[in-house]
């Protein structure tokens, strides 16, 4: 039964982001200009090594920030998102190594990557703890997991409001706004090395973690 439920949630998530793909960049255009682009640049400034994995490449918004000379594998659950990422790569004159893959079941050997990167991904993965464990599995010993995530506010009135609004936001955008991502990182047996608040109310964080 658990496997059937997991399969159902995966199919639902893929279908949702396939539907959103044609409009996704437009939906986020204002926030991209106001903050997201700046935060993405800060995210990738923390990335080191030559073999990198981006989990949840989406439409390829992070590709302009990929480090020169690094070999980046980028995955996404949605074929239509990947198609847009591929188009962005062509427009940049880059051939991206894109893979249709579930973040909860990465098809890479253990200890493959120097750094694993994800931006605004663990708000939408059906089982975030399982996906975080997979990141810990594929990063090499001494490697890092670098995340840009929006999370549930620790300030009680705002946290409760996020809980109330979450079902509507998920329906409209596919993203959960009340995920306890810091707690999920601990449940995945990852250790937080660095945590930065990027927004008021502590709802957007830059996180650097590593396997324990």
3D architecture notes:
The chain has 212 residues and is an alpha/beta fold. The protein has a single domain, classed as Vaccinia Virus protein VP39 (Rossmann fold), CATH 3.40.50.150. The protein has helices at residues 2-20, 24-27, 29-45, 79-92, 128-138, 156-173, 181-187; strands spanning 51-55, 71-76, 97-100, 113-119, 139-150, 190-197, 204-211. The protein has a seven-stranded mixed sheet with strand order 3-2-1-4-5-7-6, with helices on both faces. α5 packs across α7. The longest helix is centred in the N-terminal third of the chain and has 19 residues, at 2-20. The protein is globular, with a radius of gyration of 16 Å. The two termini are 31 Å apart. The model has no long low-confidence stretch (mean pLDDT 94).
Which strand order does the major sheet show?
A: 3-2-1-4-5-7-6
Give the name of the CATH architecture: 3-Layer(aba) Sandwich
End-to-end C-alpha gap? 31 Å
Determine the number of helices (DSSP H or I, runs of at least 4 residues). Answer: 7
Please estimate the helix content: 40-55%
Fill in the keyword field for this structure.
Rossmann fold; alpha/beta; 212 residues; 7-stranded mixed sheet; globular; 42% helix
